[in-house]
Amino acid sequence: VFNDTYLAVAFNVSDKIDFQELLDEGLSQIENVNITSSFDLVFDPLRDIQSMISSMSDTALDVFNQATSSNLTSCPFVDIYNKTTMMEPWKLHRTEDLTPYIIRDNFGNATSYERIGSEDSGTYLNRVYNAAGVCSASSNCCIQATSTPPATCTSNPLESCDYGENCVFPCSPLKLAIVEGHAAF
């Protein structure tokens, strides 16, 4: 109030701030509306989408586990993950501390299933499933036991290798599928 005049009247905005009548009118129009059923119109499609995503996630996990549990002679992978252990694969319960196979570029050694430092899950999977190759012939195929490639390199066919022209890596496609499947999950 200024000089016995309401400011709303002086500025000609009384209809803009007198909202109680409009509010009451609006509330009376929606008092018989079932809000729950109205929300269901939104929630039902969202639930359907969530169900579809869960189904896709389960399918992706099944495909991932086909690669991690292939248990082939040259790729003896026997791990089965769930949604939790897939995100933190070093937490998967295993009966052994080391891989049952030699790791490529690891000087003829297996590798630990323990997490190394703060490696992320993708790096971990890339390391653990990086199985050494096998010799396809006895010449020019061996384990590189030092950081310098050997002058002569011979092994028996089908022995583990990580160096030489006759060293083939049959597990590489599986490792790639595991690493890319994890990244897509």
Written overview of the protein:
The model has no long low-confidence stretch (mean pLDDT 84). The termini are far apart. It is built from seven helices and three strands, in the order ααααααβββα. The protein has a three-stranded antiparallel sheet, with no helix packed on it. The longest helix has 34 residues, at 35-68. The chain has 185 residues and is mainly α. 43% of the residues lie in helices and 4% in strands. It has helices at residues 7-10, 14-17, 20-30, 35-68, 83-87, 121-128, 172-184, and strands spanning 133-135, 160-161, 167-168.
Brief overview:
The protein is mainly α and 185 residues long.
Secondary-structure blueprint:
Layout: H1 7-10, H2 14-17, H3 20-30, H4 35-68, H5 83-87, H6 121-128, E1 133-135, E2 160-161, E3 167-168, H7 172-184
Antiparallel strand pairs: 1-2, 1-3
Helix pairs in contact: 4-7, 6-7
Number of strands: 3
Q: What sequence of helices (H) and strands (E) makes up the elements? A: HHHHHHEEEH
Largest beta sheet: strand ordering: 2-1-3
Helix/strand-derived category reads: mainly alpha
Provide the residue-averaged pLDDT: 84
Strand content range: under 5%
Main sheet: strands, sense, barrel: 3 strands, antiparallel
* Radius of gyration based on Cα positions: 33 Å
Number of helices: 7
DSSP helix fraction = 40-55%
Give the overall silhouette: elongated
Give the termini distance in whole angstroms. Answer: 65 Å
Low-confidence stretches: none
